[in-house]
Fold this sequence. Notes:
The structure holds 2 protein chains of 2 kinds.
Chain A: H1 2-13, H2 36-50, H3 61-64, H4 67-77, H5 79-86
Helix pairs in contact in A: 1-2, 1-4
Chain B: H1 5-26, H2 31-48, H3 50-63, H4 69-91, H5 98-101, E1 104-107, H6 109-117, E2 122-126, H7 132-141, E3 146-148, H8 162-171, H9 173-177, H10 193-202, E4 206-210, E5 224-228, E6 231-235, H11 238-246, E7 250-257, E8 264-272, H12 278-295, H13 306-311, H14 329-337
Parallel strand pairs in B: 1-8, 2-4, 2-7, 3-4
Antiparallel strand pairs in B: 5-6, 7-8
Amino acid sequence: METVINDYVSRELVQDPRLLPLADDTSLLETGILDSLNLLRLVVFLEERFGIAVGDADLLPDNFASVNAICGYVRAREPGKQEAARG
Amino acid sequence: MGDSRAEQALRGLEGVAYWAAVAPLLARLPSAVGYRAACRRGDWLFRRQTGKRAELVSNLLMLGNGLGPAEAQQVARDWFRFSSCEAVDFARLRQGARPLRRLVEVRGREHLEAALAAGKGAILCGAHFGSYHASFSLLHAGGFPVTSIGRWQYKYTAGLSNAERRFWAHVYRRVRRLRQRPNIEPWPGRFQVAAQAAAVLRANEVLTIAIDVPPLDGDRARAVRIPFLGRQARLLPGVATLAQLTGAPVLMCFQHRSADYRHQVLEISAPVPMDGDVATAFGRCTAQVSAAIERSPAHWAYWPSTPDLQTLELRGPDPAPSPAGPLTRADEVAAQHGTADHVPTPG
């Protein structure tokens, strides 16, 4: 998952080539990689690729701070995980 | 005239009294009488606010598509009249906006209905043009779930006292009540704005965006240079990106005041094609905004605000000589921050 997300962010969202290669713990907010529209692009990608639904309440800096943080968030939101948590 | 601190304070008090007491009273009179009285107040401001008028006329002469001095004065007078009429529009938003609905003809409603029937929401794209706050509230009152992207400027404008902020919050309460959700307020660092906007569209609701906003410092890197009012302006193309990412149709939306000042037409266009790259798609929207302003310049809010026009890169840093007298410090402040008669508006 880390590789898939890192590839997407590096390919589609990073504007400044000096930020590449992107480490999984690089802050996407402090480096300016993740602005408002890029967050939307990322959300659309995560929903399509991993079959999750990202709600308004989940749009927190902590969930999208880095590739690692995104992976943690997606793992917690994967359908199987959510059912298990409810179950 | 109108330059001293005392005069400026009086002007502010007059504005507060007008918005808080006079306009609500005018809104209860027969519309022909109420709006005629609002125009008289606009004429009075036109005569008294020489600095603001000078700025307005100067910018019109520079960017107003070949307007001559006499025409520019006429447009400036209408600008002040429209500004006063807008307060009456606000006051007529009571009772589910019925008093205002009687005066506004909505054209193109079928485009909006068709867009929502497709299930991807709809983006109403416009500008700080005409009585746009009231028009969006009117649509909401008419059954469309409307949410706006925009800053309530009175919450952030420097130099406003707490009392002034509370006053403007009170003035805008009628508008705020007639929205589906609270405004989505874009500021640098509020990185969830576009995703919140997408959530509105996913819920198959209506999102309004004004695309003529001067970019904030933190957003300048995202702005694109685009033909606008015969020049190259620097504007944010977020509406096109949002439409392309969500598949929501973009419909242009403008409200025009008619020659009798009380009747208005709210015109909603068919969807604008959003194919091609972002700048190309965005250019189709800005072309329509630019054309609307050129056809009816008195409706555009930004004419007296030279700092905003400079941020848009429509004007250079040096102000042109003013045909109506020198620009005073008081008028610079008024142009920059808004006064009670030029309501600080969401961006």
